[in-house]
Design a protein that fits this description.
Largest sheet: 2 strands, antiparallel
Low-confidence stretches: none
Shape: flat
Mean pLDDT: 84
Number of strands: 2
Number of helices: 8
Order of helices and strands: HEEHHHHHHH
Radius of gyration: 23 Å
Length: 181
C-alpha cells in the first residue's frame, strides 16, 4: 500500500508539472500576451459569418459583450490565468496601450456589428435575408482585419516605437538631407 501511495504521489507531482508547463505556455514570450484572449473575438467573428446559414446563432450573437483582457483571465479556468495576468501587468506601457487600442477597435467593431444585426433582425425578422448576409460579410471582414493586427501583436510582440514630434522631424529632415548630400 505504501508503494501505491508513493506511486500516486509521483503521478500527482508529474501532473502538477504538466499543469505548470501549460500555465507558462499560455503566455507568448515574444509579447507577454496570451493568445487565448483573442478566442473571444474569434468566436464572435465565426458566429457572425455563420449566422445567415445558422440562424440559431442569433441569441448568442445578441448576448455578446466586450470583456477586457484582465476580466477575461480573472474569470477564466485556464491553468495559466494567473501567469497571463501577471505578464500583462508587467508589459511595457507603450506596448500595452498599443494592444488595448487594437482591442478597443475590435470591441467597437464587434458591438457595431451586433447592433446592426439586432436592428436588421428586429426590423425584418429572420437571419437569411440578403441584407443580413451583407451585414454579416462586411462585419466579419472588418473584424478579421483588426483581429489580424491583434494576433500579430500577441504572436510577435511587434509594435512601432513611439517617436516624439521632434524625433519624427529629425528623421524626415535627415532623410531629405541625405538624398541631397
Amino acid at each position: 500500500m505504501v508503494e501505491n501511495a508513493a506511486g500516486n504521489f509521483e503521478e500527482h507531482a508529474a501532473s502538477d508539472s504538466v499543469r505548470l508547463q501549460r500555465a507558462e505556455a499560455i503566455v507568448n514570450p515574444a509579447s507577454g500576451l496570451a493568445n487565448d484572449y483573442l478566442n473571444l473575438f474569434n468566436e464572435i467573428v465565426m458566429m457572425i459569418e455563420q449566422l445567415p446559414a445558422m440562424p440559431e446563432l442569433i441569441d448568442d450573437i445578441l448576448r455578446w459583450r466586450p470583456v477586457s483582457y484582465q476580466e477575461y483571465f480573472a474569470s477564466s479556468v485556464l491553468p495559466g490565468r494567473t501567469s497571463a495576468l501577471e505578464a500583462y501587468s508587467a508589459l511595457d506601457a507603450s506596448f500595452r496601450r498599443d494592444f488595448e487600442g487594437v482591442v478597443a477597435d475590435l470591441d467597437r467593431r464587434a458591438v457595431g456589428a451586433v447592433v446592426a444585426i439586432r436592428r436588421q433582425h428586429k426590423m425584418h425578422g429572420g437571419c437569411t435575408s440578403t441584407a443580413m448576409q451583407e451585414i454579416c460579410a462586411r462585419a466579419g471582414e472588418a473584424l478579421r482585419e483588426v483581429l489580424l493586427k491583434a494576433t500579430d501583436l500577441v504572436n510577435h510582440g511587434t509594435h512601432a516605437p513611439r517617436e516624439s514630434q521632434q524625433e519624427r522631424a529629425d528623421r524626415l529632415l535627415y532623410g531629405k538631407l541625405r538624398r541631397f548630400g
